């Protein structure tokens, strides 16, 4: 047959692979049908060391098989070990045969395959209900895969008597199972049958098929071998030795253990190999895959990886047949039939050739199809029953062999119907024997490691395996002794740490469902505890009424015939469980797990280094101080020096170090490779912890963690000969985060005591990791950048230096092409910190200026230095933002420079000897114009409001404010000593109009009322200026008319804007009174009574408009009184006081009194003049006019009799009544007043 002779997935560890032919897999499926009994069988050859099958030699009748052929006992590729092992002259089946297959096909272990075993063991299990012979097998669980190996209890106890190992098991066996144990020897008839079968196979491959006698001494020697070979020990020696350092150095490099490493920072691990974990010789017996072929056999829904040595021949109706020799006097029984049938199914052989003999003389041949074997006479059996037996046994083992790393013993005594399962690992622990005395311990641990390592290679494609990998590695580490196998333990803990992906936290959060869940570290059974305690009606577990000898068994099958009942032992567990990753979503807990694994790995590495460090012995319980030191005046210079040293030590790709490290570790060793990765992983974990603490505003804790992260990185640099670009990128991230934390500490200096407490706290785990770091490095390279300093300025400088160092690294040749994305972030941080430092110096300058308020002053050198520092930082920040085309932040920095220019202008304010404000100086004008220029550049940088409305509005407001301030100072403190009045008035007008241009009155925003107030103020000021010009202008009448018209225009606009505001009644009242005064001045220059009367009537109408202002004032006065009364009723004088303060701040009552002092005489004057002009007129008044005059007189009379000593509220109420008499309010006026 073709498929069984194909060789795929071959392992170079097998010497015979190189001589055998290799072609592609030919996957074939055979469905065996027997009436209503249908079973599905599919066999795929994964590996074959046999040559293509050749036709068997058909022996002539009467051939005497007792005579040996000429080629007898000579190695033959067609027979493989089958021709000799049946005689016992070759190695027996090893107790570790399943491990050899598992090592070769590691991809199948843990998930794809349910069982790995020798085909003989599979057959023995499936024949349990039919056979009275004993069964003794070792069972191990790796993931969801069970490894089955023959546990030759007799040979084991013979070894125990020689070495003293496993004495506890021998005593247990004799006491509870077979008290009269003794080794049973094979009969001579048994060995004669074996010899005849061996000769028959050699005859079948002999070209002429004739018997060629061999020397009698050879025959005699063979018969002697038959009787003695089986008695020799074939059990491997106990795995209790480890490779010393000297021995390790002698092992070729390619044969040494290549631990699981990721390069320097690569996220994709390199392929792992563990070719020589054990010494060659006795300790490696049984760990090789010695089978002629390895087959992936699917029997119904059970997937098995089996090893087979059955010889396969060509010939007959099919391309492949199996040869069998039978004694014609002994009929075929059920056991033999099942044996033949399963062998053919496993190897996918469609036909069986049976040779019958009588006393060694060939009689005849018979051809039997594989599907016909179950119906042979005297050996009839149901394939369905065999299928049920297979499923029940697998379910039984899966349900009870739950602890990974434990060795289970499946035992059935000869002639017994009871099958028992023992946990030998637990029994060994109870016997207080070392775990190394279990010979399965090391092979199991290595297999767990290899399976986990193989799964790690695929972790990016299949995250659901994370839980399985974790369980495999934890159990691997639990099985091994750290002193004997530090390399595997260190590698396992590094892989455990690698399971936690700390680079992309969002990925973990997005896959929360797959990461949640629990599960025991050494068990795949979520219901393990319940199932051990509860009786399952479908499984015959032990009860209290059972014999005492079952008390040590994990589970018991009371009768082998229960295995034939369909689904009798149906497992409540999945055949391939999906183990969830037992880890919390909490970042800190996740990182703490990583650090615990890193620490265990570092301890394993350090313990394996023979040469002691020159460092004095340290006490892990003594914390390493992390407190800050007071800084000298040269603190900034110290930071620059430290950062320069830092950049030197992390330069790209130095030569490989040849000298031993500080701890005596040699570079290039496995300790060196593992330590590099552990240091880097610890650094990443501390980085994530720092980032998380920073997000929680725990800045002291964040600084402590980033200090630890950088110390881990310093230790990494100390032992690394060359730095991978990805390591440098991560280092830049650490420096950036350190800069962020220092910036936040500077901005929150008021909480420094709490931050210092967080910073000083240290866990025992952190202390132990620090001590491991100090074995390789002093860890002082980053101390200046990560200390908690008391000075905010120092912290800002440190933050800036961290960003600058990250920038220098990212712009170096090594990272120029790799760190572009990170470079943009660092440049933004650089621009931001330079802006922060600039603002810091600017605020210091403003504070220094405020201290000199009201004192005659001049600009001091300290102020100028602060301006220069601030301006320099702002300029550097703008360059950073320009490099990443960040127009918004560029605009903000330009806006800050504009503010700096305004502070400079304020500092140049001239104070006279009388401590009063002097004229507006040229220096002030220069700085204000510079500020305007920077604000305009900021708007130009933004382009339009749509780019960023908030920043645009802010810059627009500042620009309008600067124009307004400049114009106000120019108007109030006019430089008449340097400029003419007309020039000043022109400049004021132009500047005010520019400020007005930037007042956005139409866009609804929080600043809209401010813009309206400013626009109203600008119009009021311009109107006042033109009013003053109109009064003082002499000569050109056209100019006076122009000033009059402009004054009227601006007064009108100012009133309209003030009316739209509900919180500016005083400004509205003042503007209206000025406008009335302007009308009175105009009337004074008029000669005609009619013209004067018209002007006075217009002025009275303007005076009537003050009603809106008085109504607003009256409303606020009433609210103030209500607050006072409420406070008095509640008997809380402190609230009364606070209420009074808040009311006075809302309404300036003193200003109101002053304005009333102007209002009353002006109102009286207008009424008196109107009465005089109306009554003195020669023209007879109409009835309406007479009525109006009466009203004027009444109002005038009330105004004169008004008491000035009454409360302000009553006076305002009187004014409202009088104004209402003059001009009854309309509906719109009432609505406006009520609002």
Automatic annotation (TrEMBL):
<dbReference type="InterPro" id="IPR056582">
    <property type="entry name" value="EDRF1_N"/>
</dbReference>
<feature type="compositionally biased region" description="Acidic residues">
    <location>
        <begin position="523"/>
        <end position="538"/>
    </location>
</feature>
<feature type="domain" description="EDRF1 N-terminal">
    <location>
        <begin position="38"/>
        <end position="550"/>
    </location>
</feature>
<protein>
    <recommendedName>
        <fullName>Erythroid differentiation-related factor 1</fullName>
    </recommendedName>
</protein>
<dbReference type="InterPro" id="IPR056583">
    <property type="entry name" value="EDRF1_TPR"/>
</dbReference>
<dbReference type="Pfam" id="PF23788">
    <property type="entry name" value="EDRF1_N"/>
</dbReference>
<dbReference type="Pfam" id="PF23723">
    <property type="entry name" value="TPR_EDRF1"/>
</dbReference>
<feature type="region of interest" description="Disordered">
    <location>
        <begin position="1"/>
        <end position="29"/>
    </location>
</feature>
<feature type="region of interest" description="Disordered">
    <location>
        <begin position="507"/>
        <end position="550"/>
    </location>
</feature>
<feature type="compositionally biased region" description="Basic and acidic residues">
    <location>
        <begin position="1"/>
        <end position="28"/>
    </location>
</feature>
<dbReference type="GO" id="GO:0045893">
    <property type="term" value="P:positive regulation of DNA-templated transcription"/>
</dbReference>
<feature type="region of interest" description="Disordered">
    <location>
        <begin position="214"/>
        <end position="254"/>
    </location>
</feature>
<feature type="domain" description="EDRF1 TPR repeats region">
    <location>
        <begin position="826"/>
        <end position="1223"/>
    </location>
</feature>
């Amino acid at each position: 047959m073709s498929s069984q002779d194909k060789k795929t997935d071959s392992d170079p560890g097998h010497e015979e692979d190189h001589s055998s032919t290799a072609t592609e897999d030919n996957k074939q499926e055979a469905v065996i049908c027997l009436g209503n009994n249908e079973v599905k069988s599919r066999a795929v050859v994964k590996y074959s060391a046999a040559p293509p099958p050749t036709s068997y030699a058909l022996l002539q009748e009467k051939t005497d098989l007792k005579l040996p052929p000429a080629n007898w006992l000579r190695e033959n590729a067609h027979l493989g070990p089958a021709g000799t092992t049946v005689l016992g002259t070759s190695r027996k089946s090893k107790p570790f045969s399943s491990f050899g297959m598992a090592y070769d096909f590691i991809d199948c272990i843990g998930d794809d395959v349910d069982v790995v075993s020798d085909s003989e063991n599979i057959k023995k299990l499936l024949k349990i209900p039919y056979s009275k012979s004993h069964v003794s097998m070792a069972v191990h669980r790796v993931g969801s895969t069970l490894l089955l190996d023959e546990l030759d209890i007799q040979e084991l106890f013979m070894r125990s008597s020689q070495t003293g190992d496993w004495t506890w098991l021998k005593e247990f066996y004799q006491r509870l199972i077979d008290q009269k144990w003794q080794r049973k020897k094979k009969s001579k008839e048994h060995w004669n049958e074996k010899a005849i079968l061996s000769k028959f196979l050699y005859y079948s491959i002999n070209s002429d098929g004739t018997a060629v006698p061999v020397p009698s001494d050879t025959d005699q020697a063979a018969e002697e071998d038959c009787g003695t070979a089986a008695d020799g020990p074939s059990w491997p020696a106990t795995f209790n030795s480890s490779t010393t350092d000297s021995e390790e150095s002698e092992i070729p490099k390619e044969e040494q253990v290549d631990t699981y490493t990721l390069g320097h920072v690569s996220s994709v691990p390199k392929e792992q190999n563990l070719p020589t974990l054990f010494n060659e010789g006795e300790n490696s017996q049984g760990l090789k895959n010695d089978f002629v072929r390895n087959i992936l056999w699917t029997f119904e829904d059970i997937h098995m990886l089996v090893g087979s040595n059955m010889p396969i021949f060509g010939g007959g109706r099919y391309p492949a047949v199996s040869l069998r020799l039978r004694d014609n006097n002994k009929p075929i029984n059920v056991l033999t039939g099942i044996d033949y049938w399963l062998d053919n199914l496993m190897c996918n052989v469609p036909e069986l050739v049976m040779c019958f003999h009588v006393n060694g003389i060939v009689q005849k041949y018979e051809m039997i199809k594989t599907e016909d074997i179950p119906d042979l006479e005297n050996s009839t059996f149901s394939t369905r029953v065999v299928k049920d037996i297979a499923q029940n046994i697998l379910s039984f083992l899966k349900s009870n062999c739950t602890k990974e790393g434990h060795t289970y013993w499946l035992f059935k005594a000869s002639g017994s119907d009871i099958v028992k399962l023992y946990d030998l690992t637990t029994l060994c622990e109870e016997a207080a024997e070392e775990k190394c005395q279990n010979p399965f311990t090391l092979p199991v641990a290595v297999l767990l490691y290899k399976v986990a390592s193989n799964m790690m290679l695929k972790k990016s494609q299949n995250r659901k395996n994370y839980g399985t990998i974790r369980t495999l590695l934890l159990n691997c580490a639990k099985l091994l002794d750290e002193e004997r196998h530090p390399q595997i333990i260190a590698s396992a803990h590094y892989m455990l740490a690698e399971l936690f992906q700390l680079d992309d936290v969002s990925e973990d959060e997005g896959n929360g469902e797959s990461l949640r869940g629990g599960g025991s570290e050494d068990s795949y059974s979520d219901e393990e505890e319940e199932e051990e305690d509860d009786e399952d009606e479908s499984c015959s577990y032990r009860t209290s009424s059972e014999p005492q000898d079952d008390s040590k068994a994990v589970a018991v099958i009371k009768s082998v015939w229960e295995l034939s009942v369909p689904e009798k032992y149906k497992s409540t567990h999945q055949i391939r469980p999906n183990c969830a990753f037992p880890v919390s979503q909490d970042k800190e807990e996740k990182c703490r797990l990583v650090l615990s694994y890193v620490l265990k790995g570092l301890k394993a590495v350090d313990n394996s280094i023979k040469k002691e460090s020159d460092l004095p012995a340290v006490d892990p319980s003594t914390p390493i101080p992390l407190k800050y030191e007071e800084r000298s005046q040269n603190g900034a210079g110290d930071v620059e020096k430290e950062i320069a040293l830092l950049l030197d030590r992390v330069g790209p790709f130095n030569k490989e170090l040849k000298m031993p490290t500080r701890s005596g570790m040699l570079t290039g060793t496995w300790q060196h490779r593992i330590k590099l990765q552990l240091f880097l992983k610890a650094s990443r974990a501390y980085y994530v912890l720092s980032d998380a603490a920073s997000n929680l505003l725990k800045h002291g804790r964040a600084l402590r963690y980033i200090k630890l992260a950088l110390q881990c990185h310093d230790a990494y640099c100390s032992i690394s000969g060359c730095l991978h670009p990805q390591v440098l990128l991560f280092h830049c991230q650490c420096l950036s985060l350190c800069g962020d934390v220092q910036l936040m500490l500077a901005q929150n200096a008021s909480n420094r005591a709490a931050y210092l407490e967080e910073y000083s706290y240290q866990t025992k785990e952190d202390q132990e990791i620090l001590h491991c770091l100090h074995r390789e490095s002093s860890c002082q390279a980053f101390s200046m950048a990560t200390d908690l300093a008391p000075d905010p300025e120092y912290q800002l400088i440190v933050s800036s230096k961290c960003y600058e160092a990250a920038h220098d690294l990212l712009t170096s040749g090594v990272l120029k092409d790799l760190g572009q994305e990170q470079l943009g972030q660092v440049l933004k941080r650089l621009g931001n910190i330079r802006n922060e430092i600039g603002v810091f110096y600017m605020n210091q300058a403003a504070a220094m200026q405020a201290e000199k308020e009201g004192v005659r002053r001049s600009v001091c050198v300290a102020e100028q230095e602060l301006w220069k520092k601030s301006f320099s930082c702002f300029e550097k920040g703008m360059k950073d933002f320009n490099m990443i085309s960040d127009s918004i932040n560029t605009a903000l920095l330009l806006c800050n420079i504009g503010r700096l220019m305004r502070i400079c202008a304020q500092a140049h304010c001239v104070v006279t000897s009388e401590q009063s404000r002097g004229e507006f100086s040229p220096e002030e004008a220069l700085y204000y114009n510079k500020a305007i220029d920077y604000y305009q550049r900021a708007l130009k940088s933004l382009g339009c409001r749509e780019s960023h409305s908030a920043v645009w509005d802010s810059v627009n407001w500042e620009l309008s404010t600067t124009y307004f301030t400049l114009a106000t100072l120019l108007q109030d403190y006019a430089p008449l000593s340097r400029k003419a009045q007309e020039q000043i008035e022109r400049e004021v007008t132009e500047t005010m109009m520019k400020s007005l241009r930037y007042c956005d009155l139409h866009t609804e925003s929080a600043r809209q009322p401010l813009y309206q107030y400013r626009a109203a103020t600008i119009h009021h000021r311009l109107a006042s200026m033109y009013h003053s010009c109109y009064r003082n202008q002499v000569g050109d009448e056209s100019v006076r008319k122009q000033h009059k018209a402009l004054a009227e225009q601006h007064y009108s606009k100012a009133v309209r804007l003030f009316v739209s505001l509900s919180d500016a009644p005083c400004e509205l009242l003042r503007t209206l009174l000025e406008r009335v005064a302007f009308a009175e001045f105009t009337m004074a220059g008029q000669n005609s009574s009619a013209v004067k009367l018209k002007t006075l009537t217009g002025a009275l109408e303007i005076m009537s408009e003050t009603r809106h202002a008085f109504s607003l004032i009256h409303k606020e006065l009433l609210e103030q009184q209500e607050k006072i009364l409420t406070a008095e009723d509640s008997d809380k004088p402190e609230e009364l006081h606070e209420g009074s303060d808040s009311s006075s701040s809302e309404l300036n009552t003193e200003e109101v009194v002053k304005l009333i002092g102007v209002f009353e005489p002006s109102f009286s004057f207008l009424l008196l003049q109107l009465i005089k002009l109306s009554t003195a007129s020669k023209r007879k008044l109409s009835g309406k006019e007479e009525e109006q005059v009466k009203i004027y007189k009444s109002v005038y009379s009330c105004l004169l009799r008004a008491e000035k000593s009454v409360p302000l509220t009553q006076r305002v109420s009187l004014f409202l009544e009088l104004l209402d008499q003059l001009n009854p309010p309309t509906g719109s006026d009432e609505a406006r007043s009520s609002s």
